[in-house]
Amino acid sequence: MEDKKKVVVIGGGITGLTTAYYLQKTIQKEQMSCDVSLVEASHKLGGKFQTVYKDGFTIERGPDSFLERKMSAQELAIEVGLKDELVNNTAGRAFVLANEKLHPMPKGAVMGIPTKIGPFITTDLFTIQGKMRAAADLVMPRSNVSGDQSLGRFFRRRLGDEVVENLVEPLLSGIYAGDIDRLSLMSTFPQFYHAEQKYRSLILGMKKTTPSAPPKTVSAKNQGIFLTLKGGLESLVKAIEEKLETDSIIKGTRVVSITENDGNGYKLMLNNGDSLDADSVVIALPHFALADLFPDDSVIQELKDMPATSVATVAMAFNAEDVDDHLDGTGFVVSRNSDYTITACTWTHKKWPHTTPEGKVLLRCYVGRAGEETVVDLSDEEIEKIVLADLKRTMNLTAKPNFTIVSRWKQSMPQYTVGHKERIDKIKSNFKEIMPGVFIAGSSYEGLGIPDCIDQGKAAVEEVLQYIS
User: Where is the Amine oxidase domain (predicted)?
Assistant: First the structure.
């Protein structure tokens, strides 16, 4: 009989969970002689997927949803039995807080790029000069930069500083919590570059390439483009864990080193003194943790120079009568030029009505971004005070919140700076050459959205199966 192959997945966040789940599923289906182990340093799987249930509220500490059009996340939820739990957000206007005022997001804006002229002309979010500068994109030649460049450089050239700082930057910062003048265009939004190259104008390119929304049915007309789970995203973690073989999960244990095992696979040393043998390894860890595993590899050590931003979410629950809730919308992002500490606020009771009991209001604010991270280290009381002061400048709050939940995420937002793709390709080639059968996946590498992480986990499964076969 052939020897049983052993695969170890390091890291029990959504990427590692996805990898372990699809590996076990394929092994069982194909009746392969292979064991899979999942090793997680903490005593709980799920990473940033943490849901709090309090006084009838469902509150996410980390991410709260994923894009519906990226199919892998909902497909995974359906596979593990959560089809009936999937729910769309309520569609509603989003706002930009700029110049001490909440401005409705211009209709037809795709990540801040106007695709409809009327709403862009009539908005008071920009001055006449700012609108004229952005309109220059329609006659400007395509850029001649062949390699990577920063998002800031690309968008400022096409649309001018005012549109970038009042609309594009707040939206992109909401995704990456980063500095757009350092973030890589080709690792975050290469489709913008390709649209500009093909159609010459970025505005015309986005107008041509943005699919028109399909007509909504009567029941779906108020549905937005995001999905979540009624029981919170942590329910996805629990559902996946229940599908995994019980003896394949090792929690509260950290891998401290990976070395070649006398030319026969790899030996993983654990912090409890035990070891695991593996024919193939998937490392689903943040980049700085990956660098710690290989202190003597100069190529991997380059990851230590990759920045990661610390952020915090601040969820506040109120009685409805204590909030002057006159705006019809789902939340706002904040222009970096504004004198506010919060970077965005979701009116969660409107965007996700299932999360909030009748007669209550749930506001979820965000603090921390590149260059403005010190607020994350303040006490819960100090953060609550700062956030409340900011909120009172945008709405009338007549009482303190019933409760506040502050969730800190240190170094949680990897920054894909210019040249990111080339650096990751170099590291993957390095593994292929010196440690064949060892693969990396996760938010630090090829996309930090939930579907992106799931896609990387599935890709790692294909790599592992090809290698051990």
Answer: 14-465
CATH of the domain at 455: 3.50.50.60
Strand intervals (E) in 357-416: 360-367, 396-397, 403-414
Residue 118, both tokens: 């009327």
Q: Do 122 and 26 belong to one domain? A: no
Contact 168, 113 (CB under 8 A): yes
pTM across the whole model: 0.95
Tens-place pLDDT, residues 99-110: 899 999 999 898
- CA distance linking residue 52 with residue 46, whole number of Å: 14
Rounded (10°) angle between helices 72-79 and 450-468 = 70
Tokens (6 digits) for 272? 């409890």
Domain total in the chain: 3
Same domain, 279 and 336: no
Q: Which pLDDT band holds residue 218 (cuts at 50, 70, 90)?
A: very low
DSSP assignments along 178-228, one per residue: S-TTTBBHHHH-HHHHHHHHHHSSHHHHHHHHSPPPPPPPGGGTTEEEEEE
Secondary structure of residue 237 in the 3-state scheme: helix
